[in-house]
Amino acid sequence: MKRLLTSVALLGACLPTFADTSPAEGYQLPTDTVLKVQVLMDKNISQGETVSHLLLKSTGSETGATLPERCLLSADAAIDQGKLSLHVNRALCVEPNGHIFDGVMDAVIISDSGNQGVTTPCVGSSCNQAVLQAGVDYRLKLNKSADIALGVNQTEQINIQRRNHTPDAAAAQ
């Protein structure tokens, strides 16, 4: 989780803003939403290997419901029955104003024809190995609706307390 939060902080610091939402609303994604995502770094996956906590960033949507640009998705990846399968289980988003949105997500990678699993990243016809490349869009489809809700940003709360704190006159001497 530390790695995910650190990645979100770094991503938030270097990406521009494009999504506006009211912090009270959060992000609601209905069942069957199709998102476009990219891996943050190239990743090789071999048959029999499961990659946990693969980090993805959202790059858009094909169905209207979207996530902010500063949003990381955590996924597990494996090669299953000659296809690369990818299962997203969490989304963590940071807005420029410091608001953090977090929620459970149940999404899988789909092919251009809408079938679960993909063969395009596979190396060879039997798909014993696959390479997910940064900068390449992959498609995810939500199995059920997701509510990415506003969470408490502890750092923001500490900064507010620091700004509002007035030292005692006795402590200042």
Task: Describe what this molecule looks like in 3D.
By secondary structure, the chain is of the alpha+beta class. It has a single domain (2-165), classed as Lipocalin. Helices cover 16% and strands 43% of the residues. The protein is built from 3 helices and 11 strands; from the N terminus they run αβββββββββββαα. The chain has helices spanning 2-14, 154-164, 169-172, and strands spanning 27-29, 34-39, 43-46, 50-61, 71-80, 83-94, 100-110, 122-123, 129-132, 138-142, 146-151. The strands form 2 sheets. The protein has a 6-stranded antiparallel beta barrel. This is DUF5666 domain-containing protein. Residues 1-19 form the signal peptide. Keywords: Signal.
